[in-house]
Amino acid sequence: MVRRGTMALTTAVALAITGCAAQQQRPGTHSAGADQGVTATSVRIGGVLTKTSASGYSTKDAEIGARARFERANAEGGVHGRTIEFLGAEDDGQDAAKGDAAAKKLVQKEQVFALVPVHAPNFGGAAFLEREGVPWFGWATGPQWCGTKTGFGYNGCLAPKQGAGSQTWWGRQMADLLGGSEGKSVYVQTSDSSGSKYGGTTISQSFTAAGFELVGVNSGLPAAAPPPDWLPYVDKIMTSDGGEPPDVVVSVIAGTKFNVGLYAALKRAGYKGVLTDATSYDAAILGDPASAQALEGVVAAPMFEPFESSAPEIARLKRDVERVVPGAALTQHLAIGYWSADIFLDLLATTGKDLTRERFLATANGSYAYENRGFGKIQFPKDHDEPNGCGALVKLEDGAFQVARNMKCFDNVPLT
C-alpha cells in the first residue's frame, strides 16, 4: 500500500445501525452546519443503495462491505479518536426521485456528515449534496459523479466530457489477455439508459485505443427489462464484422438477467468469440445452473482486485467481512462498499483532528492521492473529471472464477 500526503491512519469505526431521528442540538451531539455529524468522539455516516428494483438489480451487499471496513477501523482505535456511527443505507429502488429523498433524509433528518457508500445507478441526490456541500463516496457509474466537488467515486469519473481523460485499461487488459489486438474486432452492446449509452462510448474508445477494430455499437436494448426475443440483437452481432461475428462482444448492461439472456442466445447461435462485461463477476450466479452455464467463459472486468487474488489487501478484506457477516458471499457490490469506505477513512485521517466538512473537502480537493492494490489509485481533484484508469479481469472457467489479469492501472486518453 502506498500513501502520499499526511497519512496518520489509525482508522476506526463503530457500527451503530440506527434509524433514529436527528438529535436535539446540545453540547456533544451532532450539530448542524459545517461540522454536522461530528462530535469529539464520533462521525455519523449513512449510505444510499439500490437495494431493490423492478429488474431485480441490487447493490445491497455494498452495505456489508462498508460496515466491515468501518468495524475494522473502529477496532483499531478510531480516526483521530472518533468512531464511525454507521446508520446503514437507504434504498432508492433505482428511482432518481427516491434517491434524492433518501439523501435529504440522511442530511436533514439524520444529520450525517457524509454519505458512504452511494451505489445506485440512477442516484438522484447529487445536485442536493453538491448544493449543501455534503461529501459522498461510492462507485461512479454515471455523469452525476463527474464535475462535482463533493462526489468521490472510488474509480474516479466514468463519464468524462469530450477532451477529458477516458479509460483505456479494459481494452489494454483484454489485448494482453488475448495475446494482442491486431486483426481483432469488437462489438459493443448497451441498453438505452443514459449511463449505459455513455459507457458504450467510453468503453468503445478503450478498445480502439488498445488496437481493436470497432465494428458496431448498439444502444437500442430497452433498459427496463430483458427483451422477450434476443434474436434481433444476436443477428446484428453475428453479422457485424463484414457478415461474420466479431472476435469480442462487450456488454455494457447493468443486470445479470440481461447478460445471461444475451450470452445464452449468442451461444445458441454458435458464437465462439470472447464475451466480456463489467457486472458478471458475482458469486450468486454460481448457485443457478442456467446462469452459470450462460456465463461460462465470460471475462468480467471489475474495477478492484479480485477476491481470488493472493494480495494481502484482499486477505484482509475477507477477514473483515467474515467478522461482520460470517459466510457472506463476496460480491462485486460488497467490494465497492468496502473500498469506498476505505478511501473515506483515509481522507478522514488526512484531514486531521479538526474536522469540518469545509476542511474535509478542502483536503480532498487540494492535492489528495491514495494508492492501494485493492482498487488501484485515486487522485483528486483530477479524478472528479476522469476515471482512475485501473481494473482487473476475471474469467468464469469450469464453474469457478479465476483471476485472468490482476489489478493494473493505465494512462487515460482524451475522450473524442
UniProtKB/TrEMBL annotation:
Keywords: Signal. InterPro entries: Leu-bd (IPR028081), Peripla_BP_I (IPR028082). It comes from the Bacteria. Residues 42-399 form the Leucine-binding protein domain. Pfam families: Peripla_BP_6. Signal peptide: none annotated. The keyword Transferase does not apply. Belongs to the leucine-binding protein family. This is ABC transporter substrate-binding protein. It comes from Nonomuraea diastatica.
